[in-house]
Amino acid sequence: MIVHLLDGTYELFRHFYGLRRFTKGEDPPFGAVTGVLHTVLETIEEGATHLGVATDHVIESFRNDLWPGYKTGQGVDPALLGQFHPLERALAAMGVAVWPMTELEADDGLASAARIASGNEDVEKICIWTPDKDLAQCVHGDRVVQVDRRSRRILDAEGVREKFGVDPVLIPDFLALVGDPADGYPGIQGIGPKTAARLLNRHGIIENFPPAVLGDDRRGMALLFKDLATLRTGARLFHDVDELRWRGPTEAFAACSERLGGARLLERALAAPAG
Q1: Band (250; pLDDT cuts 50, 70, 90)
Q2: Domain identity same for 82 and 64
Q3: Would strands 125-129 and 97-101 be described as parallel, antiparallel, or unpaired?
Q4: 224-249 pLDDT, tens per residue?
Q5: Are residues 132 and 235 both part of a single domain?
Q6: What is the spatial distance between Cα 263 and Cα 107, in angstroms, rounded to a whole number?
Q7: What's the CATH number where 200 sits?
Q8: What is the 3-state secondary structure (H, E, C) of 43-59?
Q9: Can you tell me the distance from the alpha carbon of 72 to that of 96, in angstroms, rounded to the nearest whole number?
Q10: How many Å apart are CA 178 and CA 174, to the nearest integer?
Q11: What is the residue-averaged pLDDT of the chain?
Q12: Domain count of the fold of the chain
């Protein structure tokens, strides 16, 4: 079996701003929600039988306590922010496993789900559907891969090495050195991607760098940023991978799809092949 793990927050952003290009700034109340649901149904129609969606139930997480500049909900369009919780309810009504993350982030949820699913010998492959570079650290061989929906590019371990210059296990160290503007930490001044890859391939993890490479101050900052970049995998999201099997929409989905104003949603969900 193949397990598909979707980044609900990324998909919500993608559909919100994609739709806005055609609505001239008039945002349908649940336009992004219906877009994400159609994406999930497309995944099912293409053969997915086991899938789950992680979302950021709140934008802030424990990382905001570690670094004051870490990303927050400030600046997120209210019309987008108001669709997070309706998306979670709609996914549940559609019969999809959904994990609303609070103390942790959606990326941690995806990493945790990948870890749990990896422990099942019947799982042949785990596809993590997000372009977020954080998730590259979860890639393992060609069994756990990262998929960019827009480009349909699949990153296995070799693909991660080709893209970043380091093995998947070194992605937190790599991001610590080069920074991640999307998450709000700057990395180490003077170290770009090529230098970071060269240092990591020569010395291994940041903890193993000779003292002269970074110095005490920059080493301390690098380790802090590595902590921010390291995804947590201990969330107890499910016990048995069969909990991710999609068996069709629940009875509540008819009323839910009507509220969302997605006329085709119910018809499409009922017609989609149940696992």
Answers
A1: very high
A2: yes
A3: unpaired
A4: 999 999 999 999 999 999 999 999 99
A5: yes
A6: 31
A7: 1.10.150.20
A8: HHHCCCCEEEEEEECCC
A9: 27
A10: 6
A11: 94
A12: 2
